[in-house]
């Protein structure tokens, strides 16, 4: 059949939906809203393949409203006007339901054209987006809608839908399948929480398996499924929220000293081929989160990242894994970051002032100088190579930006300078 299996197996009611228990379990708010038949304007937010379009179709069917589907990537203002033209006509006696997929691609003017009609109820809007709606959707539309988040479907929740997909394929093709143990679970894991991807894998696995002998079932094996999958389906759009979520989780796991989690996110980033982001965040974390607690980690991590960039993938995974584990297992200190941020705050507040005369790079004074001579004191001429003199400008001369961290390395430095400066 020409229609993809993912469309042919769409759930027809709430009970057939895979996952999204927080939205559709008994007593859940969205389920109660749908069952009430009084549908407000809704925005569905979440990854692709998690049921947003399917739920919009179920709602349209349950409310007997005429359904229009537009996609923000291709629809124009003219398409919106065509929908509006059907308001209060015989074509839509029970009202209109507009499902606007990928609404983040609609510009402000296109979104504003809907305001009047979604506010007075002539059009019930259900919009979906894979991006954070609070960043991408016009605030006036957002204020007239209720946002519900769809989440990636767990492997456990995907299994019933995958079994249903195999059953439908078997019925449509008039053939029985002998499905090897582990096939369903492998697809559930490899689809990356995307039921559309899972259905595509089912369809290709069934079509790509060898023809059986007469009277035998078609054998579908894990090996066949692996060949179909090639790579795990990961949501990793480098222009979208999930790109930054992945990098954020990677860095925060290192900061939190969780090597297993950090390696997991590193693997996902590398599997997507994003070697540059993997190395950049690793170097940032070494400086920002380990820093002065173990200063030598900075050149070590830099060296590991240089090796990774030079050898490329797949070998790059090895020095990066070593460096990630080292960062996770190292003591942590953000005292350096805190110190420079405090200094930047003063500079941005205008607390700069002239460089003290004895630190300036000049060795003569004009006639208007109240005190002539540089009067710089050379620290190496003093015991322990230190002597007291003012280095900060007068406007901030008493500021303390750096506070010693409570780790072994910084506390040793604190004790040393306490003795010297006494």
Overall SS class? alpha/beta
What is the rounded distance between the termini?
86 Å
What's the count of strands? 7
Shape: flat
Mean pLDDT: 85
In angstroms, what is the radius of gyration?
A: 31 Å
- Run of helices and strands: HHHEHEHEHHEHHEHEHHEHHHHHHHH
SSE blueprint and pairings:
Elements: H1 5-8, H2 21-24, H3 29-36, E1 42-45, H4 52-63, E2 66-71, H5 77-84, E3 96-101, H6 108-112, H7 115-120, E4 123-129, H8 133-136, H9 139-143, E5 146-149, H10 155-173, E6 177-179, H11 183-190, H12 195-208, E7 218-220, H13 222-229, H14 241-255, H15 259-271, H16 275-290, H17 297-311, H18 317-329, H19 335-348, H20 408-421
Parallel strand pairs: 1-4, 1-5, 2-3, 3-4, 6-7
Q: In brief, what are we looking at here?
A:
This protein has helices at residues 5-8, 21-24, 29-36, 52-63, 77-84, 108-112, 115-120, 133-136, 139-143, 155-173, 183-190, 195-208, 222-229, 241-255, 259-271, 275-290, 297-311, 317-329, 335-348, 408-421, and strands at 42-45, 66-71, 96-101, 123-129, 146-149, 177-179, 218-220. The chain has 422 residues and is an alpha/beta fold. The strands form two sheets. It has a five-stranded parallel sheet, sandwiched between helices. Strands 6-7 form a two-stranded parallel ribbon.
């Amino acid at each position: 059949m020409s229609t993809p299996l993912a469309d042919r197996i769409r759930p027809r009611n709430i009970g057939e939906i895979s996952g999204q228990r927080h939205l559709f379990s008994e007593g859940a708010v969205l389920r109660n809203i749908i069952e009430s038949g009084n549908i407000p304007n809704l925005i569905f937010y979440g990854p692709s393949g998690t049921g947003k379009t399917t739920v919009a179709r179920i709602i349209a069917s349950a409310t007997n409203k005429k359904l229009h589907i537009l996609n923000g990537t291709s629809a124009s203002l003219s398409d919106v006007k065509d929908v509006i033209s059907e308001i209060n006509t015989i074509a839509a006696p029970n009202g209109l339901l507009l499902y606007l997929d990928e609404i983040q691609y609609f510009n402000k003017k296109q979104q504003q054209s809907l305001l009047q009609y979604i506010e007075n109820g002539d059009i019930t809007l259900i919009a979906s987006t894979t991006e954070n709606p609070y960043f991408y959707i016009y605030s006036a539309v957002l204020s007239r809608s209720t946002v519900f988040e769809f989440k990636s479907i767990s492997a456990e929740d995907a299994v019933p839908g995958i079994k249903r997909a195999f059953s439908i394929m078997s019925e449509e093709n008039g053939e029985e399948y002998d499905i090897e143990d582990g096939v369903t679970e492998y697809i559930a894991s490899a689809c990356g929480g995307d039921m559309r991807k899972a259905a595509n894998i089912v369809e290709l696995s069934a079509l790509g398996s060898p023809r059986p002998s007469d009277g035998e079932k078609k054998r579908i094996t894990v090996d066949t499924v692996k060949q179909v999958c090639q790579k795990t389906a990961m949501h990793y759009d480098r222009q979208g929220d999930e790109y930054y979520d992945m990098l954020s989780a990677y860095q925060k796991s290192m900061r939190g000293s969780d090597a297993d989690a950090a390696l997991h996110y590193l693997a996902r980033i590398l599997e997507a081929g994003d070697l540059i982001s993997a190395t950049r965040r690793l170097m940032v974390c070494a400086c920002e989160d380990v820093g002065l607690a173990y200063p030598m980690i900075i050149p070590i991590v830099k060296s590991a990242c240089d090796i990774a960039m030079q050898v490329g993938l797949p070998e790059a995974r090895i020095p990066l894994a070593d460096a990630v584990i080292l960062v996770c297992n190292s003591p942590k200190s953000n005292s350096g970051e805190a110190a420079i941020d405090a200094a930047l705050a003063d500079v941005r507040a205008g607390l700069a002032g002239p460089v003290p005369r004895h630190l300036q790079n000049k060795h003569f004074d004009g006639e208007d100088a109240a005190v002539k001579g540089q009067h710089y004191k050379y620290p190496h001429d003093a015991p322990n190579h230190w002597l007291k003199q003012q280095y900060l400008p007068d406007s901030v001369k008493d500021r303390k930006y750096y506070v010693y961290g409570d780790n072994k390395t910084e506390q040793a430095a604190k004790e040393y300078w306490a003795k010297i400066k006494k």
